[in-house]
Structures are given as C-alpha cells and as structure tokens.
Amino acid sequence: MESTMLQWRGHQVIDSTGDRLGTIDDLYLDEETDTAEWALVNMGLFGGSLTLVPLAGAVAEGDQIRVPFEKARVKAAPVVTADRALSQPEEQELYEYYGLPYDQSAPDTGLPTGAGEPKPDSGHDTSGPTTDSAMTRSEEELRVGTVKRETGRVRLRKYITTEQVQTSVPVQREEIRIEREPITEANAGAAMDGPALSEEEHEVVLESEEVVVDKQVVPKERIRLDKDVVTEERQVTEEVRKEQVEVEGDARP
User: Fold this and answer.
1) Predicted structure pTM score
2) Cβ–Cβ < 8 Å for 54, 94
3) Better-scored residue on pLDDT, 79 or 208
C-alpha cells in the first residue's frame, strides 16, 4: 500500500462527497518511517493554491484519490510554506485542525518527495534503491484549459422619443371669378326674360380643402440580441520543472 501511495503524485483528489479538490503536487514523508503522511494538493487552476491534506484514511478509486474530508474544510486549512519540512508546531496545528491524533514525540515531517538534496542510498519512490537499478526521470507538463466567466450583460430596451416631422400636402380652394359677356342674338332671350328693371341677388358657395392629420402605429422591423463566438489565440507563460540526470564517478562506459 505504501509503495502505491508514493505513486499518487499527479493524481486527482476528491473529497468525501466526490467533489474535486485538485491534483497531488507532492507528498510529505515521515522522516523516521518514510511513510507518506501528507499530500500537497494543487487546488488552483495555475498552481496558485497549495494545501496540505492528510493521507490518513485516503483510498484510491481508479485514477482518483478520495480523502475523508469535505472540500470546505480542506480549503480553510492552515496555510504552510511548501517545499520545506514541516515544523512540529505546524504539524500539530494541521493534525488538530483535521481532528487527527498527534504524537508530540514524533519527529518533524520531512520534505516533499524530490525536494532538497538527495541522500545516498535513500528514497523509496520510482527512483529509489528499493525498486530496481534504473532511475526514472520525470518532468512537469503544462496543462492549459479554459473556464467560462461572465464578462458582461447586454439588455435590449425600447423607449419613446418625440420628433418633429414636416411634409407638404396639396389642398384646393375655390375663388370667385367674374365673367362678362355681351348680349347677342344667342343669349338675348335669357337676358331679356323678366322685368326691365329689378333688384336681385345671386349667391355662389365657395369651398376649400383643409388638412386633416391622423396618426397610426405601423410595425417597422424586428430587433433581437444574438451572440457570436470569436476565437482568438492567447499566449500562456508558466514555469515547469523537470528532473535532470547526471553521471558522477570515475567509471567510464
């Protein structure tokens, strides 16, 4: 089981309910027993949040490691400095926070696997002397993903404005025109019909057109909001670590 735990680096960690916590960035070993006691879990997208989670009660479920703690409790765990040994006060604080029994006589927890200078004939991971004569060289690979975040909202709203509209309309009106014609044989009968002298009136009705204004609502167009997806390239720069292997000694191939 212990040799299996040492291979958990890079595996995904889930909490007691199955919610994702992050990936195991490194392991902290007990300096006296070389037992993996703590996992340094990367809970941030770009490595911005490293949290220590105890491996007591942790079990492997396929490629995932389930720990017996809820995500909220892990996120609120005491913050410690990574890449160095835990002091006894730090270790005690972590044990008490997670509700685990702590032996004050126990030595400090060691450095994470691979940290610090390698000791001769030490190491029990895939590169250790307890495996075989070969040394495994590992390196970090950059994993870049995307996450959707709300960047803004657009609303379609209509309101009423008033403007002056001017147009011309042709209108007609009647005007009086006096016509005079001489008495001829053709109109003499009509002209001489009646008394020779008399008083009388003739009335003509004049008409004109007036402009009448009416308004009606006419639909003009349909307007809606739609979205287009635009793809662009963005450069991501991040540091990755890799192990280098060098040969020391007088032996020559």
Assistant:
1) 0.41
2) yes
3) 208
